[in-house]
Amino acid sequence: WYQRRVRGVQHTVDAIFKTSAAESSSIFYDLNFEQVCLGFAGLFALGAVANTGRIWFIQSASCRVVKDLRLNVLSSLMKNDMTYFDDKTSGELVNRLSADCQLVGDVITQNVSDVLRSFGQSFISIGLMVYVAPDLALRLLQLCHLLWLLPILLGKLSAALLKNCRTI
Q1: pLDDT grade, residue 117 (50/70/90)?
Q2: Rounded distance, CA 28 to CA 62, Å?
Q3: Rounded Cα gap, residues 81 and 88, in angstroms
Q4: 36 in Cβ contact with 50 (< 8 Å)
Q5: If we measure between CA atoms, which residue out of 103, 117, 7, 140 comes closest to residue 55?
Q6: Per-residue confidence (pLDDT) for residue 83, from 0 to 100
Q7: Are 137 and 130 in contact (CB under 8 A)?
Q8: Is 133 left (phi over 0), alpha (psi -120 to 50) or beta?
Q9: SS3 24
Q10: How many whole angstroms separate alpha carbon 19 and alpha carbon 28?
């Protein structure tokens, strides 16, 4: 099965470099090498624009989350009893309001963005793998479960060892 896949990759590379229409495969619709490279350059430019848009939307969402969080914190501070302000200094409250709200907003939006991007890349990558080489993709997906199992087992072993060290 491996040699068939290597021949498939060679066929794809040969299809790009063939110059005559009779030798060319229909995989690139009889385009020459320069046209394929320009197509890939356009595809990468489109990806860069999409990534820029994703970052802009995430940054604007982060600003809105931080604004709403600060409004909620300020409104809850205003509803507190006056004895609450006897124990806390105004510098501590302002510091917590400015630093913690910004940190929480950035963490929430950045983590959501990273998770969505990772899921999208995973689904597209697995789909392309299945499209190009279904039997190879099946074997790889069978191995993924074993690769996920190893860190789980090692984590449980580490937790058990740590618990034994604490009891000693």
Answers
A1: confident
A2: 42
A3: 12
A4: no
A5: 117
A6: 77
A7: yes
A8: beta
A9: coil
A10: 12
